Amino acid sequence: MSTESTPRRAGGFDIRLIIALLMGVYGLVILVMGIGFTTQEELDRADGLNINLWAGIAMLVFSAAFVLWAKLRPLTVPPSATE
To answer: Collapsing DSSP states into helix, strand and coil, what is residue 59?
Structure first.
């Protein structure tokens, strides 16, 4: 038995990375829709603002912030007493 007491990182099980992945995929889809598939009629209804473009950019920034947060402050799993 080893008496190793160093905490381990949560890694891929960190919920912040899962949220970042989902928001990043949604943001990318909305960004593409805003860049390539927005009609003039939709822009007129939104008072000239390309909502999909700005929402996609905001979602990608949010996703990047979550990844940065998860990398700078990783979750640690304390060693259990049974190991």
So the answer is: helix
pLDDT of residue 13: 77
Q: Quote the pTM value.
A: 0.80
CA atoms within 13 A on the CB side of 4: 7
For 38-45, the CB contacts below 8 A with 24+ separation are: none
Whole-angstrom CA distances from 58 to 18, 22, 41, 51, 65 are 17, 14, 23, 10, 10
Distance CA 63, CA 67 (A): 6
In a 13 Å sphere around the CA of 10, the CA atoms on its Cβ side amount to: 13
Please give the full DSSP string across 22-36, using - where no structure is assigned: HHHHHHHHHHHHHHH
* Angstrom distance (rounded) from CA 55 to CA 65: 15
